[in-house]
Amino acid sequence: MIPAPLRLRLDGDALVFNWRTLAAMSGPAACGAAAKADGYGLGAREVVRRLAGAGCRDFFVATWNEALALADLGVAVSVLHGVREEDLPAALAAQTVRPVLNTVQQIRRWREAGGGACDVMVDTGMNRLGIRPEDVAAGLLDGLAVETLMSHLACADEDVPLNAAQRERFAALAGRTAAKRMSLANSAGIALGADYAFDLTRPGISLYGGVQAPAFAERIRQVVFPQVQLLQRRLVPAGQSVGYNATWTAPADTEVGIVNLGYADGYLRCFSDTGVAWAGDIELPVIGRVSMDLTALDMSGAPDLAEGDWVTIDYGLPRTAARSGLSQYELITGLGARFDRLWE
């Protein structure tokens, strides 16, 4: 394999540190890990391997293909989107994977197929996936081997009454099923306090460096550091422009570097004239329009950088979200397949 001219430097110690931080904030509740979307784009197998080694015992993915890609690791995996008819053969054969049943039809399908242990999602106010609390009260889950009864907070990163309302609706289900555990809190839900932790928390974005609440600001470490190689360095004379549609014009003779990065890699056009790269502690502003595969940097402060050298893109999730207007989730899951992913 030829090394790519762009890479993600992934800090495994920071990933584990973040999980341990979230586990401590979860109090006596167990702390799991969402590893869907290929570990939020970082590589689910490596994420799971590291977190399992640190003591994590519960992992969550979206689909059965994601779950089966982890099956040989021997960890407990819950499939959040439930079980379709097409999923049944794999679901019934799986040893360490459980469906999270979300609908009356999924529950009926699982029961009629003779399925074993499962999880169940209850909708307490998000109106996305999940059965109604009234269905639980009516005995819909009677006879099912429910490992975890769960729900999902819609606005955990905001101070709104819906959070408490969802918690109360969920808490009212305690003892109404044979479920061994109850689980409500995502990353931001952990920061809402002990009343939201129940028996199991399910952090996602904060494992990977996302800061969803003020309580995380000094406690969550950056995990992902995109780095790109300098393809060309050139002197752009005063008055000449750089990039598509000539959106940036050199106010004086300017040293410009072109790097192998663009919107096909998830570095979107919103970073045009706003993004930043670094060579050590030297700031290299993005200039002109980000294109599909290339981005231009002002190299004035880095006279020694040459073709083939690497620079680091400023990609701390909270800071970059504020700069770009994108969510922290979009920023991390959008990093493309052309990056080599290098764990440290």
Helix residue percentage:
10-25%
What does the radius of gyration come to? Answer: 23 Å
Order of helices and strands: EHEEHHEHEHEHEHEHEHEEEEEEEEEHHE
The largest beta-sheet arranges its strands as 3-4-5-6-7-8-9
Low-confidence stretches: none
Distance between the termini: 20 Å
Shape, per Cα inertia axes: elongated
Q: How many individual helices?
A: 11
Q: What oligomeric state is this?
A: single chain
Class from secondary-structure proportions = alpha/beta
Overall pLDDT level:
97
Q: Which band does the percent of strand residues land in? A: 15-25%
What's the total number of strands? Answer: 19
- Biggest sheet statistics: 7 strands, parallel
Structural description of this entry:
The protein is α/β, with parallel strands linked by helices and 344 residues long. Helix 1 crosses helix 3. The relative contact order is 0.14. It is 24% helix and 24% strand. The two termini are 20 Å apart. The chain is elongated. Strands 3-4-5-6-7-8-9 form a 7-stranded parallel sheet. A 6-stranded antiparallel β-barrel has the order 11-14-17-16-15-18. A two-stranded parallel ribbon has the order 2-10.
